[in-house]
Amino acid sequence: MSGQAPDFGQLQVGDELPTLTFGPVTRHVLALYCGGSGDHNPIHVDSDFAQQAGLDDVIAHGMLSMAVLGRMVTEWIPQQQLRAYSARFMAITPVHATVTCSGRVSRIFEEDGERRLRLKLRTRIDDGKTTLSATATVALP
Fold first, then answer.
1. Structural domains in the chain?
2. Nearest by Cα to 69 from 84, 81, 87, 82
């Protein structure tokens, strides 16, 4: 991300947000996220447990990807402008994957006296698989 504020007056449907890449997701990151989130499900930190569950190895928390995707949005527009954010978990993010967050403007509208944008967002991992599909609504500053 460039850190340069977009010209919100010039945005159009289809315009893309700056991407954000996170990772690779390491075991250390997963252990830290367990502590920070309170989600200590062993599927995220215990390889033996994950294998007993039929996985090759531990997997990342879906909420970790959702948090990084939210960070992409709030690095683009101030957090206080966020009006709604929802996500659908589509696929597993394995340990060692790199997550790429992207988004685009899908709608420009007025609501509650504010000019707003609807954003279509997603995360993808190295193999191109979409792991999270999301939408956000933001008010223009």
1. 15-25+60-139 (3.10.129.10)
2. 87
For 91-133, write each residue's pLDDT tens digit: 999 999 999 999 999 999 999 999 999 999 999 999 999 999 9
Cβ atoms of 94 and 60 within 8 Å: the answer is yes
Classify each residue of 76-100 as buried b or exposed e, where b means 16 or more C-beta atoms within 10 Å of its C-beta.
bbeeebbeebebeebbebbbebebb
Q: With b meaning 16 or more CB within 10 Å and e meaning fewer, what string describes 15-36?
A: eebeebebbebeeebbeebbee
Other residues' Cβ atoms within 10 Å of the Cβ of residue 116: 18
Q: What is the pTM of this model?
A: 0.89
Give the amino acid at 32. L
Q: For residues 60 and 102, is the Cβ–Cβ distance under 8 A?
A: no
Token pair for 78:
């101030």
